[in-house]
Amino acid sequence: MTDLNAPNNAKAGTTSGTPGSPDAPASLAARLNQAQPYALGLFRIVVGLLFACHGASSLFGVLGGSAVPAGTWPGWYAAVIQLVAGILVLAGLGTRSAAFLASGSMAYAYFKVHQPESLLPIQNGGESAAMFCWAFALLVFTGPGALALDRLFGAGETTAAKAREDRGAPVAA
After folding, report:
1. Among 28, 43, 57, 157, who pairs with 63 as Cys (CB 3.0-4.6 Å)?
2. Is residue 156 over pLDDT 90?
3. DSSP assignments along 59-82, one per residue
4. How many angstroms separate the CA atoms of 76 and 111, rounded?
5. What is the pTM of this model?
């Protein structure tokens, strides 16, 4: 019987970064960390597009939806929020603010419309409201990621990113 915790000498000659080498997970993690802003940007784009489509469906009756009468509470106002916030998040413009508003509107939709029907989202039809709420909450905390208009105007830079840059710059006396 072999000891599973003992080092495997058969793999001692492997090169760095190949499967089985001790630093393979570290290099995979480094590659995934490099791709993180782009994955987050793609996530933001898809969530924003889906949310904007949901709003357009409710406002204009397109994409298989039926139009909500103008000015009705809360449906019409929710549709306006969905369309506008969805477009802003899709473009990556004012992402954190738009995502905060969208997350709050979906929390309201879940607790006022779906949750009174039954406790669980699968039972009350509130899966999309719950998923949108948490997806937008994630964007509030992570920011827009790559490929965002916020980056063009400098608004997308977080204080942590600025702090990292400041640490690398020499301080003049």
Report:
1. 57
2. no
3. HH--TT--PPPTT-TTHHHHHHHH
4. 18
5. 0.73
